[in-house]
Amino acid sequence: MDLEAFELVLLRTPDNAPAYDDAELERIQKEHLAYYAALRAAGQVVTNGPVRDQPDQALRGLGFYRTGSLERSGELAEADPAVRAGRLAVEIMTWYCAPGTMSKPGRAVTL
């Protein structure tokens, strides 16, 4: 069977996440969102976003990268301003799916 490969990045809250005041958290979040928008625009991230209703509350979001390399995707994920600030930690793995799955339209949800 033919499969497409992506690098799946899980973003988690680390046990030792530093505390920041509200203004700093807002700045970090804005930079995090802008960073992912740039990665999507560059074609390095296919899609990404937060999770909700997860049993493990440390899991905060997912990113599906397409760089062809766990190493390169890891470098990009680690450069996320929220990761650099210690607010998020990265787990990365290869994920496979049927060809074209990631290009099919999904349903829009407002969070």
What does this structure look like?
The protein has 111 residues and is of the alpha+beta class. The chain has a single domain (4-103), classed as Dimeric alpha+beta barrel (Alpha-Beta Plaits, 2-Layer Sandwich). It is built from three helices and four strands; from the N terminus they run βαββααβ. It has helices at residues 22-41, 70-78, 81-84, and strands spanning 4-12, 45-50, 59-65, 89-97. It has a four-stranded antiparallel sheet. β2 and β3 form a beta hairpin. The chain is globular, with a radius of gyration of 15 Å. The chain starts with a strand and ends in a 14-residue tail after the last strand. The mean pLDDT is 93.
Helix proportion of residues, in percent?
A: 25-40%
Q: Report the end-to-end length measured between terminal Cα atoms.
A: 36 Å
pLDDT under 50 segments (min length 5)?
A: none
Task: Using the coordinates shown, work out and report the CATH topology.
Answer: Alpha-Beta Plaits
Please state roughly what percent of the residues sit in beta strands, choosing from under 5%, 5-15%, 15-25%, 25-35%, 35-45% or over 45%. 25-35%
Number of helices: 3
Number of structural units classed as domains: 1
Structural class assignment = alpha+beta
Features:
111 residues; alpha+beta; Alpha-Beta Plaits; four-stranded antiparallel beta sheet
Structure in a nutshell:
With 111 residues, this protein is an alpha+beta fold. It has helices at 22-41, 70-78, 81-84; strands at 4-12, 45-50, 59-65, 89-97.
